[in-house]
Amino acid sequence: xxxxxxxxxxxxxxxxxxxxxxxxxxxxxxxxxxxxxxxxxxxxxxxxxxxxxxxxxxxxxxxxxxxxxxxxxxxxxxxxxxxxxxxxxxxxxxxxxxxxxxxxxxxxxxxxxxxxxxxxxxxxxxxxxxxxxxxxxxxxxxxxxxxxxxxxxxxxxxxxxxxxxxxxxxxxxxxxxxxxxxxxxxxxxxxxxxxxxxxxxxxxxxxxxxxxxxxxxxxxxxxxxxxxxxxxxxxxxxxxxxxxxxxxxxxxxxxxxxxxxxxxxxxxxxxxxxxxxxxxxxxxxxxxxxxxxxxxxxxxxxxxxxxxxxxxxxxxxxxxxxxxxxxxxxxxxxxxxxxxxxxxxxxxxxxxxxxxxxxxxxxxxxxxxxxxxxxxxxxxxxxxxxxxxxxxxxxxxxxxxxxxxxxxxxxxxxxxxxxxx
Length: 421
Known about the structure:
Blueprint: H1 5-11, H2 21-24, H3 51-63, E1 67-72, E2 78-81, H4 85-91, H5 100-114, E3 116-124, E4 136-147, E5 151-158, E6 163-170, E7 175-178, H6 182-185, H7 191-209, E8 216-219, H8 227-246, E9 259-262, H9 271-286, H10 290-294, H11 299-325, H12 328-332, E10 335-339, H13 352-361, H14 367-373, H15 410-420
Helix pairs in contact: 3-5, 4-5, 7-9
């Protein structure tokens, strides 16, 4: 059919004009919320402290590392990516609400906050209880409520009704992951828990000191050792409070013999020093620095952070997924779950040219492979896909000269001519 104005008008659709008025108010869309119901909420106390920013920083850095369902050789080397439902959940779309990267971020935040997390396959091609051969279609992270010998009870978000429900699932169908930094972050008397407790105390002190109190002392011109004098002083104090409360501009009067002593600040404590000490200790135990949060960390600091914090968490996540969701037969066939850290993202731009020369000259990567690393399109030149040293001339197509053939001298030439005659 010709692409005319009439044909375009016949199939055109507008979200505001083509809605059916009869179904606009009658269809049941399910429960509604003012905020996203499946979003992970940190425990009470963590959201008001620096701990939330630490957990969020770690979760973001871990989720930036791609996780793929791959095939490896007998030496454990990467061969190819397997196009499966599990790979789609880890890299593209984990469920109707989350992408693969968002899902991994929720897993890490659950690990850091609770100490453990459960990755639950919500939709599968067949029942995991009937067969080990099934394809995973959607994944969600769940909070573990109770532990049993072979089962766990979890709190899982149901996207069909928009509510969190409690389910009891077998451990062989759920990837249970424990935080490798559990003793630092989740133990009852760990460094992070002590820091959270001190921060909550500091918040309570700050809230009390900023609650509108004047912090003044009124000196009365008589002794208050007797109960009658104490009652008189209390009455005088209530009178001054009533004057300040009922005055438009907060003005009150006192007797000529009375004195007012104003406290510049409340009594000091050592909370701030303890918080500073615990914060530095937590940073050292997690491999963090202030430069990492401010974005000014050098290559050595970032490498130390990735080796001590990011890599153990990522290894725990991938090992848990591989252990449960890949059968022994699949692992024997070379299937695995791998993560790929982009080492070049930690390298300054000034050293990329030197690295490109060394990697291509030593025939480690091709020109197009390195162009993909730095975000450039591949070159159409066939030489860009050749794995060879560009500083050495390629071998010519002419046949090589035989080494054993001796040069022909003038006497041999004359002899050959006579024989020809």
